[in-house]
Amino acid sequence: MAVVDRDGLVVSANDTFGALLGKAGAALTGLVAAELMDLKSDARTWHAYREVLGGRQAKLSCTRRVKHPDGHSLWVQVSVAPLPAEEHGVLLSLTDISARRELQARLRHLEMHDPVTRLPNRTLFFERLAAALEAESYEQGGTGRIGLCYLDLDGFKAVNDTLGHRVGDRLLAAVAERLTRCADEAGYARASSPLVARLGGDEFALLVEDSTGTDQLADLAESVLKALQAPFNLSGQRLSLSASIGVVERQAAGTTATGLMQAADTTLYWAKADGKSRWTLFDPERNAHRMTRQALASTLRPAIERGEFTLEYQPLVGMENGRLRGVEALVRWNHPQFGMLTPNRFIGLAEEDGSIVQLGRWVLVTACRQARRWQLDHPDEPPIFVSVNVAVRQVWDSDLVADVAQTLAETGLDPRLLQLELTESAVMGSAGRPLQALQALSDMGVHIAIDDFGTGYSNLAYLSRLPVSVLKLDGSFVRGFQYEGEGVPPNPADEVIVEAMIQLAHRLGLSVTAECVETSAQAARLRRIGCDTGQGWLYSRPVAPDRISELLGTKACNQAS
């Protein structure tokens, strides 16, 4: 302890006080106390100290680091309190807290570092990331950019499961050493090296502050992949390993830790999905597509209930006379945010989450009701059939036969005027319940068509044992028929293949519909080789029900609508 007068000079100090500063207590008399404690280096502390000296503040307590004459530093707790009024001064006391500070530092190190790899852990990583994204960090100089390589070891779980967690931990430690080496090499001749951290499990991160662009991050990712390619030798046991890396590099301004990590996590997922053992750079357009996909998936079911879906109908035209024989119902989603969406934007999502059952039931009822309305509105014309697409999940997750029967009963539509389309791969793998459903529908009088035929198994012998009545040739076959007499002649094999398929189909009692008919030359060649029905823009694009009413009783093949 030491007594300090109102002017801030040491009046007296005991030997213990002097020992902390490396001097005898008596030798401190007359010296400026604030300089001994370095109280002027902190403006707030210096102000509070002067307030106590002037009697305007009751006390002061702070922590200072002081240097001993022998060269070592120590941490002390400084307390300043006023003496009785007649003493005209303050009492200054010091407590050596160096051991406590050292213990706190050791505990903090343990708290902030992974015990297996000795790398900074998730807590310290996010602390550093948050600090790097603070405005004062990048406004004081540097590039103002930040980069991140988010890494996940491919197949690491198999190592733990087969060799045990002890070997797994040793492998993680070896990986950490190689990552640290890559970071040190990347930081050579730069202001600092990337921070390497283990975020948990087999996930690691390399944080690059003041990055110079995507090239720097790409080089770092490449070096990491190369470093991990060499086998790991763990006590004579050789293990091979690879990794997938998501790479993000952007301006620090406007970036949040959450946003950066979400982008990195998404990009790591892309790297895994693209085949693993690679790095992938964050792509805003690809991410926007993913976000759109998620937005669509989350609103699919409510959209069905809100009536946001509508049907358009594309004519199916007889090749011999060009007259309308039927239509294919094609669903559209009139999305309030993204506008009119075609099936390729949402049918896959509906199949994934099961909402295809609810949507498919709505399409079936709406299409059958419309087909019946055309029949009633045009009693003098031969009735046209309606073709409805059916997903395999509708067969498995719902009673499709009961749904069809109920719909036909409610709408009064003749079963022979309903055609259900399934993809070739779905029908060719039919067995058990799906096959029983198809057979029951066929027995009911409903026609079964194979959509996109020729892109899958193309097993006509197997098809002969299924209740199928129509084959719809995939458009890739029909596109080879576009030759109009100019340019390079088509490959003769295209026509030979299609003609052979049509003849085989007819021998099996099946009719054939050609998709994607766009020119009169295509129609003429398909008609010549015996194709029964055509569908495509030559006849009409998908249109509203009113336009189909106009086409009834007319030849549809003269021009596109």
Would you give an account of this structure?
The protein is an alpha/beta fold and 561 residues long. Helices cover 43% and strands 23% of the residues. It is built from 22 helices and 21 strands. It has an eight-stranded mixed barrel, surrounded by five helices. A five-stranded antiparallel beta sheet has the order 2-1-5-4-3, with helices on both faces. The protein has a five-stranded mixed beta sheet with strand order 7-8-6-11-12, sandwiched between helices. α7 (156-163) runs antiparallel to α8, α8 crosses α9 and α13 packs parallel to α15 (400-411). The radius of gyration is 39 Å and the shape is elongated. The model is unreliable at 557-561 (pLDDT under 50). Residues 293-556 form the EAL domain. It comes from Streptomyces prunicolor.
Radius of gyration, taken over Cα atoms and rounded to an integer in Å: 39 Å
Helix amount, in percent? 40-55%
Distance between termini?
101 Å
Secondary-structure-derived class: alpha/beta
Assembly type of the chains comes to: single chain
Number of strands: 21
Proportion of beta-strand residues: 15-25%
Tally of contiguous helical segments: 22
Key traits:
single chain, 561 residues, alpha/beta, eight-stranded mixed beta barrel, 22 helices, disordered C terminus, EAL_sf, EAL domain-containing protein, Biofilm_reg_signaling, PAC
